[in-house]
Design goal:
- It is a single chain.
- By secondary structure, the protein is of the alpha/beta class.
- Helix content is 23%, strand content 26%.
- Strands 3, 4, 5, 8, 9, 16 and 17 form a 7-stranded mixed beta sheet that branches. Strands 12-11-10-13-14-15 form a 6-stranded parallel beta sheet, with helices on one face.
- α4 packs across α5 and α4 crosses α10.
- It starts with a strand and ends in a 6-residue tail after the last strand.
Length: 348
């Protein structure tokens, strides 16, 4: 067993505090990864504060992990010491169901094993990337291309793949009109990726205060949803809308922005049930869908795509002792656009 420094949530109402966790001895297929950077995802906050159900405290969050391989198990074939690698939202799955065998491990019929706040196949709680090292089965590790800085690559393991997967599934590309609702940690990646795929990209944001950023990141158009005229002017304009905000929206207004056979994809996961008037679906044969991260193969495809097109997250690097302040800033939308923890500071 290897003892590593980490930050953990111990209760829903308490700040995260320094601690240590034990990493298992390497099984034949395992790799030991020295973490360089770990992104802060809104999911981390929801989990740490038991907003998505009761967490299994203590919880070490973090599922946007980038680092280098320190040691490999006796049966590892994909990676070698020194390789640059990443770990995303899950570290195992049943490997036997239809989705798993189809490379869609994120939809494992038996439930994937989360990178944190889960129990692994050895009966031990999983602890995530807010730590200095982690042990993961090689089949759930991705290679980070040399042209991607580890710091900007870390958020790609969640935010990046969360947007890449629906863009690929609904075939965004030249001739496709894509709208991204919200320009935050998820939304800014949607803009960058859709632009790199060749789509015509529009940002739909509550105000125009981030308009300069949106256009710089690749948006062709930027509109304020606080202006009622926006919904009139853009009616029937989009083939694909990606909703990255977690607030409950007036779905009849947003569905009205879809063209014939257009799809609105929910990514932000609002707290309350979504209300959708039936006529807003029937008109123009529209669809309302959802999407959840991506499988391992698609995540690798996304990393390779980002390397080829020079796409990385917009980040602010922080030290471990700033995690609690970062959580408050995320809640206040005071980050452009993703916090990344320098994992070296866990050992400082």
């Amino acid at each position: 067993m290897l003892t590593v420094n980490a930050y953990a949530a111990t209760a829903a109402t308490q700040p995260l505090t320094p601690t240590t966790v034990e990493r298992r001895d390497l099984a034949p297929a395992d790799v030991l990864i020295d973490i360089a950077y770990s992104g802060i995802c809104h999911s981390d906050i929801h989990t740490a504060r038991s907003e998505w159900g009761q967490a299994n405290y203590p919880v070490v969050p973090g599922h946007e992990i980038a680092g280098t391989v320190r040691e490999v198990g006796s049966g590892v074939t994909r990676y070698a010491v020194g390789d640059r690698v990443g770990v995303g939202c899950f570290v195992d799955s049943c490997r036997e169901c239809g989705p798993c065998t189809a490379g869609l491990e994120q939809y494992c019929e038996n439930g994937f094993t989360g990178t944190y706040n889960a129990v692994d196949r050895y009966g031990q709680p999983t602890n995530g990337g807010y730590s200095s090292a982690i042990v993961v089965d090689e089949n759930y590790v991705c290679r980070i291309p040399d042209s991607l800085e580890l710091s900007v690559a870390a958020p790609l393991l969640c935010a990046g793949i969360t947007l890449y997967s629906p863009l690929r599934h609904w075939k965004a590309g030249p001739g496709t009109r894509v709208a991204v609702i919200g320009l935050g940690g998820l939304g800014h990646m949607g803009v960058k990726l859709a632009h790199a795929m060749g789509a015509e990209v529009t940002v739909l944001s509550q105000s125009l205060k981030k308009m300069e950023d949106g256009l710089r990141l690749g948006a062709d158009h930027y509109h304020a949803t606080s202006d009622p005229d926006t919904f009139t002017a853009l009616a029937g304009s989009f083939d694909l809308i990606l909703n990255t905000v977690s607030a409950n929206l007036d779905m009849s207004k947003y569905m009205g922005l879809l063209a014939v056979d257009g799809t609105l994809v929910e990514l932000g996961l609002p707290e309350h049930p979504i209300e959708v008037p039936a006529f807003s679906l029937a008109n123009n044969r529209r669809s309302l869908a959802g999407s959840k991260i991506g499988g391992i193969a698609e995540t690798q495809e996304m990393l390779d795509f980002c390397a080829e097109h020079g796409v990385g997250a917009e980040i602010e690097i922080i030290a471990a002792d700033a995690i609690n302040d970062a959580y408050e800033r995320v809640m206040a939308s005071d980050v452009r656009y993703r916090f990344v923890i320098d994992a070296a500071t866990f050992d400082a």
